[in-house]
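Lab notebook: predicted structure, single chain.

Context: the supervisor wants predicted structures on file for every construct in the current expression panel, including those that have not yet been purified. This is the next one on the list. No modifications to the sequence; it matches the entry in the shared construct table.
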Amino acid sequence: MDMILATLKRLAIADGIREVPVPYLPSGRDIQRYLLASLFAALPSLVLAVYYFGQRILAMVAVAFSAMAAVEIAFGLIRRKTIGGGALVFAVLLVLILPPQIPLWMVAVGAAFGVFFGKEIFGGTGHHVFCPILVAKGFLMFSYPQIVKGSYFASMFDFNPPDAWLICSAVILLGAVATIIARPANWLVLAGIFVAGTSLGLNLDIAGRLPFDTPLQMMAVDGFLYGACFLACDPACSPNTKTGKWLYGLLIGSVAVVMRCFSNYSEGMMSAILIGNLFAPTIDALSRLNNSKRNEREEG
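Prediction complete. Output recorded below exactly as produced.
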């Protein structure tokens, strides 16, 4: 019974005792704090999603969790190691960026693909280079664009009544609080995203190139706010240095606005985070190099 409970705990969150083989990977405790904070912050969003879209959202979570857990268990058996965990958190966060009418079998395929190619092939939870939630969403977007395209919880501006997006935005901002609680330095990532997004949005609005009524509306659609608050600060995919976090946030915010304003692609924030994940190790390395040179000059 104890073994079953321990396995369920790892599948849901993470046990927090994972060893760190190399210094640039986050500890198991860091991952556990992030997953726990994200889960508790996402629960109000999940409740609102059920309220607006119906109980089918819960079925989507169950299907996504089952698919992700199956992949994690399979890799655990193959590696003969404990399960990395996080399937429940990843399932909830994934469902909130999927349209509620998507067939359940697509939810299962996307969830399994995201965990397989976004997490497990890199070594499991904490070793992943890309956010597995966005790998799953990207796979579904490119494979079934007509079905996956449309409104979902993280794109709040189309909700009825019209002011519902204010309630949803306030609830999603709990994710920002959660990521800062999990890692206090994450406020630098969030600040970078919102500084870049706001400044670019204002300048584009002045130039008449902003395809939204206001920069505020731009941040309330297409998962911009949701991605910043819940997904961008994953400790496995974001820089560790303070300078790196700031630059990482500026990169994501800038790319998200540029992609959304100068293309027909509506998932600019999701792609921007994946691009940020790709460059996170390089940003960290350059930040450490710059800090080392600065220390040498000060000592000299």
